Amino acid sequence: MRELEIIVNGEPRRIPAPATAADLLTSLGLDPRTVVVELNRVIVRRPALSRTALSQGDAVELVHFVGGG
Amino acid sequence: MTTTLQQPDTATDHPLAIGGRTFRSRLMVGTGKYRSNTDMARAIEASGAEIVTVAVRRVDLDRTKSEGILYHLNPSHYFLLANTAGCYSAADAVRYARLAREAGFNDFIKLEVIGDRETLLPDTQGLLTATRELVQDGFVVLAYTNDDLITALRLEEAGAAAVMPLASPIGSGLGLLNPYGVRSIKSRLSVPVIVDAGVGTASDACLTMEQGVDGILMNTALAEARDPVAMAGAMRFAVEAGRLAYLAGRMPKREIAVPSSPERGMVE
User: Fold this and answer.
1) How far apart are CA B117 and CA A51, in angstroms?
2) pTM for this one?
3) A25: domain range?
4) Between chains, do A36 and B57 touch, taking CB under 8 Å as contact?
5) I need a surface site. Which of A55, B223, B234, B265 has the fewest CB within 10 A?
6) Every domain of chain B and the residues it spans
């Protein structure tokens, strides 16, 4: 398979395979220091991003801090 | 802004301590709903607040440059307190708390488990469940709750590091609706009591602090003021004034007048 189809923040996306969580952040232009990654409801800690492989159908949540009370 | 207002006397007051940390300001502020990030940053600075709340949300992937709040708020200047706003179940709140902790600033969480979309009043059962789970997981839990003493007692038993009763519903600006309820919570709990939500203007903040609570958290009162920076200054003074008045101990209320000038020595 040359591309993975995954769900990122609720939307389907394609990413060249093989890909890690770090690759996904890079492809989206996101700084891993300011984003928290949850893969299939499990948090991926920052040091593990580059060794966490993504699989077809994975659900990824990318969150950060926004204004709130 | 120059100020001649004195800080509460350290001989009679003590710094606010939550979860093993001490804070110099008893005013905590949110970062939501400001008309601009510049307004927000200046208002927060004017408030003198040390604890600043933030929310956890998805990164907006459609925007070319999705800026988180930290772009406008230096995390080294403030103690960032993440909330679980928008969570309607204990499980969701626990999930958001863990995401917030992973952002890497601290183990504190302002726990909200909302029970109703119209009033945003807390689901106290979900709140207790989530508090127990998060305390078990090493979080310092500051629990947003209503003005009910029994819930507050149960939250303390569950290990909450602070209990945060509302003054009135979130974003309502209705002020302190139940001073007795808040006072009774303060009188019975050992952990700090921080009034969260509902304060609309400086007199609300002052009256709230006069009940003896340990602090106030507010957001909309600043963000929706015509001049958020000026209101932030007013709130800073109001919180300090209310605290000082509480420590000073007010005079008794009487149903009759008592003259302030001598009744003797009047000319004939």
Assistant:
1) 41
2) 0.90
3) 3-63
4) no
5) B265
6) 24-248
Query: Is A48's Cβ below 8 Å from some Cβ in B?
Result: no
- Chain B, nearest residue to A27 by Cα: B61
**A34 near B CB under 8 A:** yes
Q: Find the CATH number of the domain harbouring A56.
A: 3.10.20.30
Strand ranges for chain B from DSSP E: 16-18, 21-23, 27-29, 51-58, 79-83, 108-111, 140-145, 162-165, 194-196, 215-218
Chain A residues near residue B98 by CB distance under 8 angstroms: 43
The complex scores an ipTM of: 0.93
> Which residues of chain A are within 8 Å of residue B170 when distances are taken between CB atoms?
69
Coil vs helix vs strand at B126: helix
Confidence tier at B68 by pLDDT (50, 70, 90): confident
Largest pairwise CA distance in chain B: 87
β-bridge mates for residue B3, sequence order: none
Assigned domain for A14 exists: yes
DSSP β-bridge partners for residue B162: B142
Q: For residue A5, which amino acid is it?
A: E
Residue A51, amino acid: R
Reported as a pLDDT band with limits 50, 70 and 90, residue B1 is: very low
Contact call for A63 and B57, based on CB within 8 A: yes
Q: Which fold has domain B24-248?
A: TIM Barrel (3.20.20)
Q: Which of A10, A46, A66 sits opposite B55 (nearest CB)?
A: A66
Pairwise CB contact (< 8 Å): A38 & B33: no
Q: Is residue A69 part of a domain?
A: no
CA Rg, chain A, in Å?
Answer: 12
Catalytic residue, from B33, B110, B186, B253: name it. Answer: B110
Q: Say if A68 falls within a structural domain.
A: no
The DSSP H or E segment spanning A15 is strand A11-16
Q: What are φ and ψ of residue A5, in 5° steps?
A: -105, 120
Domains in chain A, number? 1
> Strand, coil or helix: what is B12?
coil
Q: How many helices (H) and strands (E) does chain B have?
A: 8, 10
Using alpha carbons only, give the angle B125, B128, B134 rounded to the nearest 5 degrees: 140
